[in-house]
Structures are given as C-alpha cells and as structure tokens.
Amino acid sequence: MGKTYERIDGRLRTFIEEQRIFFTATAPLDGEGTVNLSPKGVSGSFAVVDERTVAYLDFAGSNAETIAHLRENGRITLMWCAFQGPPTIVRVHGRGEPVFRDDPRFPSLLGHFRQVDPDPHGLRAVIVVRAELIRDSCGFAVPFMSYDADRPLHAQRFAREDDASLSTYFEQKEHIATSIDGLPGLPLPLPAMPGVERD
Prior knowledge:
The protein has helices spanning about 10-20, 65-70, 105-110, 155-160, 165-170; strands at about 5, 20-25, 35-40, 45-50, 55-60, 75-80, 90-100, 125-140. By secondary structure, the protein is an alpha+beta fold. It has a single domain (about 5-170), classed as Roll (Pnp Oxidase, Chain A), CATH 2.30.110. Strands 1, 2, 3, 4, 5, 6, 7 and 8 form an 8-stranded antiparallel β-sheet that branches. The termini are far apart.
C-alpha cells in the first residue's frame, strides 16, 4: 500500500541517498511535445538540501531537455527503485529549476555535493527540486540487480574540456541551446565555473 510523506527525512531520506541511480521525467506544456526521461547515476551528484528540497548536478550531454522543460514550466518527477533489499519505489513530484553557473546561488549549492569533483564531468547546472508530493509504492516487479561501479567514461571524456572548449562543444550540438521541441535550453556561451563554497 503506497504512503504519502510530508517530508524527506528518516528512513525515506536514507533510502533515497543509498540508491545508485534515479530517474527524472519532464515534459513541455504542449500536448504534442516530447516527454523526456533521464537516468542519473554519478556517485555523489545527488543531495537532500532540506526536508522538502533535493538537488542534483546536471552534467554535459548531447541534449538539454530537462533544462528546457524546467525553464518553461518547472514540472518534474524524480523516481528511485530498490534494486537490492526490500522492494520499494519512491517518487518525488515537484517544481524544479536549473541554477546555472552565473547564478549567485550556484557556489553555495555546490557545497551540498561532497563526494564528486564536478569539473571533469562538464557541469552545466544544479537542478533544484522543491517537493510538492512525496509518495512510495511497492517495488514487487522491480528486479534484483547489483551495482559494480560507476562508469568512468563520462568523466574521462569531459576532463579534456576547459570552460571555453566545453561551451564550443555545446554550441555544436543541435539540442543543447534549444530543445527537440524548440524551447530555450542551456544558455550559451557557458559561463566560467565559479569558486565553490563548502559547508
């Protein structure tokens, strides 16, 4: 039987923080637009900011659909599945916002992420999500799967880029500055990486 939670704390927070992968889902307002579903799994790239707010690091890729959808309407759902241990699925439905490198909040938000060096991954933004509905459900149909290790390929690929070359890389991609459906995506040119304030 599913349960609704008022806040992300206790066992719920522990469960979320222990998962090696989660998924994000967004969509444009246009009913004919493209729904986007993305896996997120770099260790240390997710953080619980407070009892109703979570955040994750948005790294370089070939698209910026989540950013575009959030800029347009803010709707987002995050989902975690238990691939080990008791069968559980947790969803956080809420409003998200991409916080870009030139935002004054960016350095302090990075301080919530202690286990990952963002530079080799081509960090574009911090996605901040304010929870509006927090629910769990049974995960009886979710298979058992084991975690071996993070893939090093993404960090290795983008470790070769500095801020200028990373911005050039994004400018060459068709769906970074503009989404598949023509919505504004990642603002370019990419601002330089600011200093990081650690808690």
